[in-house]
Structures are given as C-alpha cells and as structure tokens.
Design goal:
The complex is a heterodimer of chains A (about 150) and B (about 750). With about 150 residues, chain A is α+β, with helices and mostly antiparallel strands. Chain A is built from five helices and five strands. In chain A, α2 packs across α5. By secondary structure, chain B is of the alpha/beta class. In chain B, α5 crosses α6, α10 packs antiparallel against α11 and α15 crosses α16. Chain B has 17 helices and 32 strands. The longest helix of chain B has 28 residues. Chain B folds into three domains: about 180 residues, Aldehyde Oxidoreductase, domain 3 (Alpha-Beta Complex), CATH 3.90.1170; about 325 residues, Aldehyde Oxidoreductase, domain 4 (2-Layer Sandwich); about 140 residues, Aldehyde Oxidoreductase, domain 4. The chains are: A alpha+beta (about 150), B alpha/beta (about 750). The complex binds FE2/S2 (inorganic) cluster (FES) (2 copies). One FE2/S2 (inorganic) cluster sits at the interface of chains A and B. Chain B: This is Xanthine dehydrogenase D subunit. Chain B: It holds the Pfam family MoCoBD_2.
C-alpha cells in the first residue's frame, strides 16, 4: 500500500508498504529517518517515541496505515538547523547520554513534558518519563538534564 | 570529588584529563543522527533471519529447507553444511556450532539462516523450514551437572572449570560460625540496542562487517575460522553500539550475516527483535553458593569455606574467567587467614551464560555480604563494624597469596558512607514516594524502613596470565593552520565515553585541542575487549604511550628548529616553551609540514595463572572497590519494595572524566538494584519464560532513587594517571546493600535474588 504523511514538516510518501509494517519501520527503513529507535518494538521502552499529531506515541505500536494523512515529528525534527533544542543541549551538557539508544525517545518525551509543565518537580519528571527505559545512566543525569532544560527555556 | 593525589598534567590545556568535556558523539546522539548497528542501510540489501531450536536438548534428525527456498523474495537458506570453515566458535573454547549440526543444547540455538528482500519475508520463510528433532532429557541443574548422574553435554564432561582456593588451615575452629545457602538468578544485560549489523561482500570472496560488539578482533578471529578466510578478507568496523554490559562479548549475528552475504553476493542486514535478543546473547551466570564463615567472639574472621556453582548453560563462553573471579574474590574485601573455596562452572541445557558487568564478583558478593550481616548479628556488632574489623587494606594478602599493592580503602569507604545524610522519613501524603507508587496500594500502613550496607571488590583488566594489550596510533600534524591529532584504535565505544577520555589524554599530553577519534576497525591491531573495566586503563594507557612517543619526536624536531636542546623544551597549551625563556614558538609553526605518527602496543604488568590445586598466584592486575548504603521502604503486607536512597562511595584512583565516572556509578548501581528486586530470566526446563520487556523488568526512572556519590582518588602507582577501572565495582555492592536493607526492614532471611514479593510476605 501507499502511505502519505507529513514528517518534520515535509510531505512524504512511502510506497510498497506491507500492511504489517509499523510507523517506526516506515520512518526508519523507508523514509531514511532512523533516529527513532527500535529497542523493543513492543511498546515497553519508549525509544521510538515520536509526536503523532502533536501527541507523543510509540511509533512501534502505530501501524503504518494509521499514520495516513497525519503529522509526525521525530527527534530529527526538534533542532532548529544547527541550534539544538534546549532539551537536546541539556542532555549533552548534563552527561545524560551514554550509549544514547534511549536518548531520542527520552528527548521527545522530555520535550513534551516541558511544553505541558515548564518547571516540573522531580516527581513529575519521573512520572512523565516512566515509560522510557535507559539501561546506562541510572536516570539521575536525565533528571538533571530535564531540570536544566526547564531553566533554559 | 575527593582528590588526595593531584592529577599529573604535562601540557596544560583545557578539556584534558580530570575535566568533563562534552562527548564527541553527544550532539549526533541527541539529534538522532548517530548510526547504530541497526540503522545501517545499503542499496540492494537483504534481511537475514535465524531459525532457532524450540527444544533445550534434542538430536536433529532432519532438516528440509525446500519450502523456504521456494518463497518469492528469498535469496538463501543456509544450514550447518554451508559453513565453509570450522562450524564451531567460542571466546575461550570453540564449542558452539555456528549452525547446529547433530545436537541442539539450548532453546534458541541457531539451526538455519535465511536471507530475503524484506524482513517479514525472511521471517515467513524461516517458519517454513522443517526440522525434525528427537528430544533428549535436558540437564538444568548446575549441581547435578557437576555431581549427578546426568548426560555429558560435551566431550570431557559437564565441568567447564573447577577452581579451588586453599589458604591456611583447612579445618579451623572458630567461636562463632554462620552458614547459608544463597542463590542468584539469571540476569540479562538488557542493552537497549538490539544485536544487529550489516555484512557487505567485497566481490572477491571477502566481506566487510559493520557491527556492534565489544571486541572487534576476537570477533574477527572467530569469523575467519568459521568462513575459512584470512583476516585480510574479513574486515570489521564498529557500528554504533547501544550498550553492551558484557552481552556483546560473544558473537551473535556476525558469522550468520557474513555467510549470507558471501552466498548471496549481496549486503545482508540482521537485526534481532527483543525476544530474539534474549536468545541471542549470553546472560549472567545464575549461582548457588554454600558459605560458612567462622569468627572469634569479637567478630574477627577465622575462616571462610565456600562451594560456588555457576551455571554456564549450553556453551562455555567466558565461564572460565567468571569462575576465576568468583573463586579468587569469593571472600570479598576482607582479610581472612583460612580459606577453602571451590567454584565450579558447568555446562547445562540452560541458556548460555558469560560476561555481564562484574562477572563472577557480583554473584560471590551476594553470598559473602549476606554472610557478613549474619555474622554481625551473631557477634552482636553492627553491619559496618564487622566489616571494618575485617576490612582489607593496602598490603593485605589475598587468599591467592597475592599482596594488594595499592590503595584498598575498604574501611574508609564505610566511614564515608556512614557520614552521609540519611533520607527524611517518607511522607505518607504523596503516593509517589511510597512502595507501589500511584497504584495506590498503601497510604503508609504496613510500610517499614530498613537500612543496609555492602562492600564489593573487583579485579580490573584481564587476569590469570592473559596477554592483555591494546594498540593505539597517534598522529600529529598541522591541519588548516591548527595543530590536530588523530587517534586510531580498535577499542569499542559502547556508551561509556572512552572516545571522550582518549581526546582528553591527547590534550593533556600534547596540548592540542583538536583531537579526532577515527572509526574503530580491524585495520589496526587489537585493543582487547571493552570489558573487565579495562579500556581507560588499557587503551587509555596505549594512547598515552603513543602520545608520549609523538611528544618525544616532536620535541627533538623542535629542538633542531629552535636551536635548543630537547631537555629544555616543553609543550604548554599549543606552544613550545623553555623554563628559562618562556614561550618560544607556536606549535603549529614548529610543526610546519612535519607529521608525527606513532603506533604503540601497550601492556599492563604481567599476571600469573592460578595453581590448579591451591589457587595460589598473582592473578590480578588491580583491584577496584565500591560500597553502598541502601535505604528501603517495604510494604510488608504486599511485599512491595521502594528503594528510597542508594548512596555509593568508590575509589577510582583518578577520575579522568568526573562526569563519566559518576555516570558509571549511577548506571552500575541501577543494574545492581535491578538484580536485587526485579531482574531475572526465569527458566523452566531450560526454556525462558519471560523473553520480553513486558515480563523481564529493568529499573525505570520511578525505581531508581537519588544517590549521594563520593568519589575517592587514591592513585594506583602502577596504572596510567593512577586510575582504577570504574565500570564494574558499583554493580557489585549495590545488590547486597539493598537486600540487607530489606532484611533490616522485614526480618526475613532472603537467601535469593532477585527478592520477590512472596519472599517478603
Ligand atoms: S521500540 Fe517502541 S516502545 Fe520500545
Ligand atoms: S544511554 Fe544507553 S540506554 Fe540510555
């Protein structure tokens, strides 16, 4: 089948999509956007988090066909040219990135949190990021990064 | 950060050793532009899939691939007969088939591989392969494998290694004796980036493989043997690695993808999904441990006797090294005059086990630290006091006879932990701070707080006489009017931040800000494995040594150009200077067209094998120490645990990059927390029951408490910059500290990790 969607502000089309493919597969393998990650492909890790019509979603749980006509924003669409989004910059500065496999999903989830709650408490950050697994950092520096991004906005 | 020895800096510049500059790959990682092994793409590439055994132990009686081959879009279906070279591989012993031939020894063992033009086509074709099996009785208990009357799974029997350690009296008498049987469940590394890679045939019978691994050269050796090719024909490049923690030390898809690429003449990509990942890599050895500790009435250790069984599963992997660690470190960081330890690593039909962060030391620590708490109780001492009375220190002789010849600040770690502030009592008003969280399982009723302590010890680098080295090439030249250095090694960056540290070392030694770390590949000599907390030590050591050679050559070049002697010159932040006359010239001007290019193979001081009868020998290069204090709130009615705080003190010798050091301590402690209260691969008759992140739980941000961290820098005079490997020690003491805290809260014995709710209620 064919899927038409808007990704990071650009109209895109994917052809020969098999019905069983996920939005994550289409982004990664058909549209050249492998930034969203594939750590579990079963909705448990959040590494594939993207905005779907402005609401964060696990792209691995969205069937490609469900994305027809909709708007997707991925981690590749957060920076403004060379200027990183404050969330991205804070992740680098705080040491919240080790292997970085969780990072794209966490950056999108934290970006969404800060739109809703510009100055979140530790407890609020923990609840908001509870669906994003990280195996490397123990999360402490991710909390630091979100706080400092909140300060920078 | 507590610094007792100042870092030795030779060419002052910003962002050198001891600072925390941004990692060079950080920006690409936050932008989603860093290419992990599962992100690779090639024109015209195929997708591979692996058919795995559904049985833990069976004889293969037939394989029919015809239906799979007939599927449109399928380019190859390969079985063991298609392996051109040796159909065996393995880290220590080549005992594992590339593709099963006569017998399968674990559920999940690869039997056939498929390449097709779409991953789903490959999966569907794979399911059409017909394999017939005669099921055999699986061996699933490690003690049975050693002592029982069970099938021999490999020629030579089921014992991969038995390591005895004997010291002092073997039948000592003690006033107070405590015993216990402890179990550690099978933990998974659960790195987030799945096993994956891309193999590209070169059109001349060779292959280029882009893969996430921990040790390019040991992969290459095994692939070459299986493919019947030369190392020149099999070139590996490190693709982006999404975490490792030991789980990538063994091969997964490397040989399979290369085989498929050579047979089809097309690039082949393989990516495991999460379930397959549980079958696709080795895990932490489950352990059963019998300990007896004897002490004087005032709590001084007289003896430790232990039998430790480590279940290596179907193939050896690094079981030998894991046994060596558990045996030599089996009494923990304590001075014990009489020791009798026997440690066995076995073959069974359980999933293969091998390296995971702290391997061998993690299991033993749960045993000996549980025992120390029991002994404290029996002697009427506090948990910290019993540990202080027996704490080893510099100069202590290990049970192997090896004298610890650098800092071993065990008592100081405990003192500092005790000095840290304790968390406030939990508020019952905020559900989020209670066990069970917003599930609303308690408002504070039945919730009891407990505090626990633990200390751990780990050997750093490869031990027991292994020829452990790393190779580094450092090149200095002027580029675009600036001095610039490129560094080449084959050391795997797996997320820990080695790439940052190598840049820092160059800045410190050469005073050059612009440092490029080249992609890691097999065009240079081996760097050894990214494991055993060894890369800062080994590849850091190699890069430093190469930089010093470059500096030597540069200074003599400069001496000629400036009409000075080499001895009076030094580098100072991108300038050449002499003590008498200060700055003489800019480095870039002195360099001119010259280029300095040095390659060094660097070794740590040699170690010795253990005596096979007594376990005597100077087996280890360096020891690392960390200690934790855990505070938990336990809902004693439901058995739910909330870790409220987890504080850590660790000696790192020298923090080359303080931010990365703290990151290692936080991440390592989190993995220890996982083992304490949630993480276990549950097997039944050799079959994994929970191969998914739905059923295998790792700590989330809700599970991980805030940490107070104190980093000591007591330099090891034998190590580059005095550093001590950082990665593993925090994983070791975290688990027993948390379990001790749960015991303190509940009064339960808790002889097994992970602790489950039904152990508590
Ligand atoms: S890959 Fe989508 S939630 Fe894990
Ligand atoms: S940085 Fe590796 S999983 Fe989060």
């Amino acid at each position: 089948m064919r899927v038409n969607l808007t990704v990071n502000g650009e109209r895109r089309r994917a052809d020969d999509v098999w019905e069983g493919e996920s939005l994550l597969y289409v982004l990664r393998e058909r549209l050249g956007l492998p930034g969203s990650k594939n750590a579990c492909e079963q909705g448990e890790c959040g590494s594939c988090t993207v905005y779907l019509d402005d609401v964060p979603a696990c792209a691995c749980l969205v069937a490609a066909g469900q994305a027809e006509g909709r708007e997707v924003r991925t981690v590749e669409g957060l920076a403004d040219g060379d200027a990183l989004d404050p969330v991205q910059q804070s992740f680098v500065d705080a040491g919240a990135v080790q292997c970085g496999f969780c990072t794209p999903g966490l950056v999108v989830a934290a970006h969404d949190l800060l739109r809703r709650e510009p100055d979140p408490s530790d407890e609020e950050i923990r609840e908001a990021l509870a669906g994003n697994l990280c195996r490397c950092t123990g999360y402490e520096k991710i909390l630091d990064a979100v706080h400092s991004a909140a300060g920078a906005r | 950060m507590t610094s007792t020895v100042a870092g030795r800096t030779t060419a002052a510049t910003a962002n050198g050793v001891g600072s925390s500059p941004a990692r060079p790959d950080g920006t690409r990682k936050v932008r989603g532009e860093f290419a992990y092994s599962s992100d690779l793409w090639h024109e015209d590439m195929l997708w591979g899939a692996t058919l795995r055994s559904p049985h833990p132990h069976a004889r293969i009686t037939g394989v029919d691939v015809s239906a799979a081959v007939a599927v449109p879009g399928v380019h190859a279906v390969l079985t063991h007969g298609d392996v051109p070279g040796l159909n065996r591989y393995g880290l220590e012993h080549p005992d594992q088939p590339v593709l099963a031939d006569d017998v399968v020894r674990y559920r999940g063992e690869p039997v056939a591989v498929v390449a097709a033009d779409h991953p789903e086509t490959a999966q569907r074709a794979m399911k059409l392969i017909e394999v017939t099996y005669d099921e055999l009785e699986p061996v699933t208990d490690a003690e049975d494998a050693v002592h029982g009357d069970v099938a021999e799974l490999h020629p030579g029997g089921n014992v991969v290694r038995h390591a005895p350690i004997r010291r002092g009296e073997q039948t000592p008498q003690a006033d107070v004796v405590v015993t216990g049987r402890y179990e550690v469940g099978m933990q998974d590394q659960a790195f987030l980036g799945p096993e994956s890679g891309l193999a590209v045939p070169d059109g001349h019978g060779g292959v280029d493989l882009y893969v996430a691994t921990q040790w390019l050269h040991v992969d290459q050796q095994q692939i070459v043997a299986a493919l019947g090719l030369t190392p020149e024909q099999v070139r590996l490049t490190l693709a982006g690695v999404g975490g490792a923690f030991g789980g990538r030390e063994d091969l997964s898809m490397q040989i399979h993808a290369s085989l498929l690429a050579l047979y089809t003449g097309k690039p082949v990509k393989m990516v495991y999904n999460r379930e397959e990942s549980f079958y696709g890599h080795v895990h932490r050895h489950p352990a059963t441990m019998y300990y007896e500790h004897g002490a004087t009435r005032d709590g001084r250790l007289v003896h430790v006797t232990a039998r430790i069984y480590l279940d290596g599963g179907a193939y050896a992997s690094s079981t030998g090294a894991v046994v060596g660690n558990a045996a030599t470190l089996g009494v923990g960081p304590y001075d014990v005059p009489n020791v009798s330890i026997d440690c066995w690593g076995t073959y069974t039909n359980n999933p293969p086990c091998g390296a995971m962060r702290g391997f061998g030391a993690v299991q033993a620590a749960f045993g000996y630290e549980s025992q120390m708490d029991k002994l404290a109780d029996a002697c009427g001492l506090s948990p910290t006091e019993i540990r202080r009375r027996n704490a080893m220190s510099e100069g202590t002789v290990m049970p192997t006879g090896q004298t610890v010849d650098s800092a071993a600040p065990v008592a100081e770690l405990l003192d500092r932990l005790e000095g840290m502030p304790l968390p406030q009592p939990g508020s019952t008003a905020d559900l989020r701070t209670l066990p069970g969280g917003v599930s609303n399982t308690t408002h504070g009723e039945g919730v009891v707080r407990g505090v626990g302590y633990a200390v751990g010890i780990k050997n750093i680098c490869f031990s027991e006489g292994f020829d452990d080295y790393s190779t580094a090439r450092v090149r200095l030249a002027a580029v675009g009017g600036q001095p610039a250095v490129t560094v080449q090694t084959a050391a795997a960056e797996v997320g820990q931040g080695l790439v940052t540290i190598l840049q820092q070392i160059i800045r410190t030694e050469l005073g050059v800000e612009q440092v490029t770390i080249l992609p890691m590949d097999t065009s240079i000599g081996s760097a050894g494995s990214t494991s055993a907390s060894r890369q800062s030590y080994m590849t850091g050591g190699a890069v430093r040594a190469a930089a010093l050679k470059v500096r030597g050559a540069l200074l003599s070049h400069a001496a000629t150009r400036l009409s000075r002697t080499t001895a009076e010159l030094h580098l100072d932040g991108g300038k050449l200077a002499s003590v008498a006359d200060g700055v003489l010239a800019d480095l870039v001007d002195v360099l001119g067209e010259a280029e300095f290019d040095e390659t060094v193979e660097w070794r740590h001081r040699p170690t010795e094998a253990l005596d096979p009868e007594t376990g005597r020998g100077n087996a280890h290069v360096q020891y690392g120490f960390a200690a934790h204090r855990a505070v938990v709130d336990v809902d004693t009615e439901l058995g739910l645990v909330k870790v409220v705080s987890l504080d850590c003190v660790q000696d790192v010798g020298k923090a080359l990059n303080p931010q990365a050091v703290v990151g290692q301590i936080q991440g390592g402690s989190a993995q220890g927390l996982g083992l304490a209260v949630m993480e276990e691969i549950q097997t039944e008759g050799g079959v994994i029951r929970n191969p998914s992140f739905t059923d295998y739980l790792i700590p989330t941000v809700l599970d991980m408490p805030p940490m107070n961290i104190d980093v000591l820098e007591l330099a090891d005079p034998h190590a580059p910059y005095g550093l001590r490997g950082v990665g593993e020690p925090p994983t070791i003491s975290s688990t027993p500290a948390i379990v001790a805290a749960i015991r303190a809260a509940t009064g339960k014995e808790l002889l097994r990790v992970p602790v489950r709710p039904d152990h508590i209620v």
